[in-house]
Amino acid sequence: MSLIHEALEKLEQQKSGRKKEPIAESVLPVFSEKKPSEENSKVIYWIGGAVILFFVLGIVYLSAGSLESQLPKTDALPPLSSSENSVPPPTPVSKQGLFSLTGITQSGTELSAIINNELVREGDWVNGARVKSIQSQEVSLEFRGQEINLSL
What we know:
Layout: H1 2-15, H2 38-70, H3 82-85, E1 101-107, E2 110-115, E3 118-120, E4 125-126, E5 129-134, E6 138-143, E7 146-151
Antiparallel strand pairs: 1-2, 2-3, 4-5, 5-6, 6-7
């Protein structure tokens, strides 16, 4: 506030005809004709380059999307020729390889089985399969909706 007050007083003095004093340099705004420093110009170039890069990437992305929509859509596969039908389908992998029955034990009236080195009873789970039943020489498992029978 003191700078403004000083400037107003000096202005009043000049208007009243008193001795004209130059206004203090601190009151006048300072406009310099400095050129931007080299560091500032480098930053500006980097920002400009990044903007141009994102602009070009956006154009490439949009043009790739429009090209993809122009491609013909092939939902159905062509029919197989008779020579290709002669190849037999692949055989399914046996799930029994996932489970190894090494023994069945009896404690009183309850039977237990050793499957994949784990002692299990009816209702227990082993490697994602539920033990359905245990007989003296066979164990029945339910694995992914299918029944697997393991024998000694």
